[in-house]
Amino acid sequence: xxxxxxxxxxxxxxxxxxxxxxxxxxxxxxxxxxxxxxxxxxxxxxxxxxxxxxxxxxxxxxxxxxxxxxxxxxxxxxxxxxxxxxxxxxxxxxxxxxxxxxxxxxxxxxxxxxxxxxxxxxxxxxxxxxxxxxxxxxxxxxxxxxxxxxxxxxxxxxxxxxxxxxxxxxxxxxxxxxxxxxxxxxxxxxxxxxxxxxxxxxxxxxxxxxxxxxxxxxxxxxxxxxxxxxxxxxxxxxxxxxxxxxxxxxxxxxxxxxxxxxxxxxxxxxxxxxxxxxxxxxxxxxxxxxxxxxxxxxxxxxxxxxxxxxxxxxxxxxxxxxxxxxxxxxxxxxxxxxxxxxxxxxxxxxxxxxxxxxxxxxxxxxxxxxxxxxxxxxxxxxxxxxxxxxxxxxxxxxxxxxxxxxxxxxxxxxxxxxxxxxxxxxxxxxxxxxxxxxxxxxxxxxx
Length: 447
Known about the structure:
Elements (H helix, E strand, L loop, with lengths): L10 H20 L2 E4 L1 H10 L10 E5 L28 H8 L3 E6 L19 E2 L2 E5 L5 H8 L5 E6 L5 H7 L2 E4 L19 E6 L2 H11 L29 E4 L14 H13 L4 E4 L5 H27 L5 H11 L3 H19 L7 E5 L17 H4 L5 H6 L3 E8 L5 E7 L5 H14 L8
Helix pairs in contact: 1-2, 4-5, 8-9, 8-10
């Protein structure tokens, strides 16, 4: 390691070195990184000093998101042909770097963001800082562990059916899934293009909002990107939330894998904290909630299989067990099934959006259980972990969602709630999440 003496006391250099020290302590133990990039970060800063509104923010980038200083492996032995379509870096990464963020590593995921943690796979399995015998969530797995332990300030991840929100919930960090189309997915390996989003995970909604303000905006190269204008997400951090109409759905009847004994009381206390902010709270029922989850699974499985179809014919045995399980399930879905799921999606999404005629935001649990043990996780029994997660429905409808920590199980594992807004209302989501985090300290807790 060598640091240019001209930059020895430079804030950006100091931030990278803090990241290096934390990474030396936690990176390998918790399976945070696929590729650490601290030396590359310092060289990039020497060549072109990082300036801008994010100067000094250290960043982990999920290893399905292309970044120019390191290979993107998707944590797989199989390379997809035709990627990254001549673009060596994702638009989202370039935007963050141009604003001064410094990439210090490519972070662990699951193979092509699929399946379950694979201890026999080619990359690390991310472990939970609160209990290393438990999962850190996925598929943006290294993101939550890395942020919580200071390996980096924030992470750029993807969320198809919960891949940002679940790691945030399990590690006690904060994630912000934007409205589908707000942030370009250009230069990102797709999982299911009609569901994929790119967004931030950080220690607070404050930093998530700062990152989103840079990430948001159209990209002519992205056919899924929207021309909708970005909002004032940073300004929303200080907004008064008194009088906001909040609809609450506990989703208890859909907790197929069970409910942690502490979760109802923890969630109820979070609702009382919201009441103290002056919101107007009532109950809502998310319509056709189980069907939304079925639709999301059909779309994800079918689209993932189609993307990998040619590679599967060539390299089936080189994929890991979790990915093979997903692809086998996807292969059974017919074109009729897929088109019917898309039609159902349109109808149900319209039904859900009508809820926002009556409320400004919806609040639900992110998960009913804390992080599951890694031992025994199997792609053949997904209900043992998927049954406690409440993220897929909002991916189907495309709504923006923040997951924020709200407390702990009796075993000391984080629990979280989701703040859901209408399409393009990220500023409203940010406002409530920020007010909640000003009034509580759950997001500041560390093991």
